[in-house]
Amino acid sequence: MQRNTSQRKLVLDALASLEGEHPGAERVYERVHADHPTVSKATVYRILKDEAASGRVLGVDLPRDIGRFDSRTDGHYHIRCRICGKVADIERGCCGTDGLFVNNSGYEIEDVMIAFSGVCAECAAAERGRTGA
Ligand SMILES: [Zn+2]
Ligand SMILES: [Zn+2]
Q: Counting CB atoms within 10 angstroms of each CB, which of 1, 19, 91, 129 has the fewest?
């Protein structure tokens, strides 16, 4: 049990150290593995899945993307750069998304997933550099 608890902490610490990056499980595993080579990939993947299911970490599923994880669990949205694939946070209330929808489906809404797509600042600058040259 103690062993499980400490492996869980290693995974959560690794994810926290990557905050803002929205790493996939592979990246979290690499971070854990660098300092703790005895922790198996299967263990890291399982712990991430468990923690996401229980809401202690946020599973970030974007269209046509790898499954990512976020140590930040308060309500926020994500935008993915279509060029380099980097993912950043978008705060709730931004861009007029709240209040944009009317639910006349008769369904009770339990969750909403909104995924933004665009071009990050670095890629936009690189594009400008190329076209300007
Ligand atoms: Zn980019
Ligand atoms: Zn996020």
A: 1
